[in-house]
Amino acid sequence: AQSVTQLDSQVPVFEEAPVELRCNYSSSVSVYLFWYVQYPNQGLQLLLKYLSGSTLVKGINGFEAEFNKSQTSFHLRKPSVHISDTAEYFCAVSGNTGGFKTIFGAGTRLFVKA
Amino acid sequence: DAGVIQSPRHEVTEMGQEVTLRCKPISGHNSLFWYRQTMMRGLELLIYFNNNVPIDDSGMPEDRFSAKMPNASFSTLKIQPSEPRDSAVYFCASSGYMGSGEQFFGPGTRLTVL
Description:
- The complex is a heterodimer of chains A (114) and B (114).
- Chain A is 0% helix and 54% strand.
- Chain A has 114 residues and is mostly beta strands.
- In chain A, strands 2, 5, 6, 10, 11 and 12 form a 6-stranded mixed beta sheet that branches.
- Chain A is globular, with a radius of gyration of 14 Å.
- The termini of chain A are far apart.
- In chain B, the strands form 2 sheets. In chain B, strands 2, 4, 5, 6, 9, 10 and 11 form a 7-stranded mixed beta sheet that branches. A 4-stranded antiparallel beta sheet of chain B has the order 1-3-8-7, with no helix packed on it.
- At the A-B interface, strand 5, strand 6, strand 10 and strand 11 of A face strand 5 and strand 10 of B.
């Protein structure tokens, strides 16, 4: 079975500071990994995804994530955050098991303070 | 494309009433997902379809919940009878590829059961 753990439920950070949102997964098969963002009163939208190839994945809005197979992690980073990055971020995993069902983490709420 | 369309956006009903939520996926997508989001339980996958066929309904909380996808462009999630604990935001999402594909989320239906 697959699972996703987002290690921080809330991350406060000052504007223009760097941020890392942590995600660990477990799976017995090859995985596809995703980060989604949810702004208030909206649905989720994709930030970036890892399917194969380069372990460093770049996404929208200056975010990037690194797939680390040995540590089963897929942490999300941004070198300098803006107030507008305040949102909830979800890590997700899917793979060739369970009918390719995508499993979402519990979410990390990022608060960017002025 | 207009994206995933959900209706209604808000629904307030009384306990015991039937509620029907509607979803129109993105044209050409062959997978459709229904999620429920609450503060307590986070984002839960209720059911998903591939090519209009239900693949996994293990997330449907109980027999009061039912979902149908009569054709590739329409799906419904029905709750009968509704209860206050069903109050949540319900999201529909669609994808062109199971597992490795991005899921496109609708804006959600905020359901309040009094």
